[in-house]
Amino acid sequence: MSARSIPNLLGVFRLVATPILFWLVLTETAAGYIGACVLLLLMALSDIADGKIARRLGAVSPLGVFLDTTSDKIFVAGALLPMIQAGLLPGWIPFIVIIRDFLVSGLRSYAAAEGLVISAGQWGKQKLVITVVAIIWRLLAGAVALFPAAPAWLATLGSLWVVAMGLAVIWTVASGVEYFYRAWPMLMSDITPQHLDRLEE
Asked: Minimal CA–CA distance to 21: which of 101, 159, 133, 139?
């Protein structure tokens, strides 16, 4: 295995680890929640690192770009969805996050087909970090709640997950709006025969 394959392996790691993350949350135990926090943190750090490693090694590839742009959305959904079943989150929060990711992915795919690149703005770059922090905070609060003898200050700190999750929702919506604002000229451009042929495929 060469060093140039490290970025792709990190992307594969996030995909393979997502079912484990899903299962850990569904255990609805303190150990499961804490394990999910550790795994989620590792996945987020790998997502931040793989692009930098690929550029430094000159190993940017189509597979690497695909893994980098999709795996973060997959593992975030893999954390959020079981949190609904575990009673840790209302369903509308994962709904907003997942719908936003579908819309932005579709927008960027269409732009790429037109030979355009819509890079992430400041809101988009910050969204993943804020969302992961909010998810970890909520999971830790859930773990604390399973310990009746936990100190009151720890329970109070855990209850502030609502603030972190609220910020995550704000950044999710704002980053989506930012993407569509930057793409608006493209979306409002005239349809060409090439566009029509592509739509019929």
From this structure: 139
pLDDT in tens, 113-151: 777 766 666 787 789 999 999 999 999 999 999 988 888
Segment holding 78, helix H or strand E = helix 62-85
Q: Give the mean pLDDT of 44-48.
A: 88
Report helix angle 161-187 to 92-113, nearest 10: 30
Separation CA 76–CA 74 (nearest Å): 6
pLDDT of residue 111: 77
CB-neighbour burial class of residue 31 (10 A; exposed 0-12, middle 13-18, buried 19+)? exposed
DSSP state of 91: T
Spatial neighbors of 167 by CB under 8 A, at least 6 apart, are: 130, 134
Q: By C-alpha distance, which of 129, 125, 40 is closest to 82?
A: 40
d(CA 126, CA 44): 12
Domain boundaries, the chain: 3-200
CATH number of 3-200: 1.20.120
Mean pLDDT calculated for residue range 29-50: 93
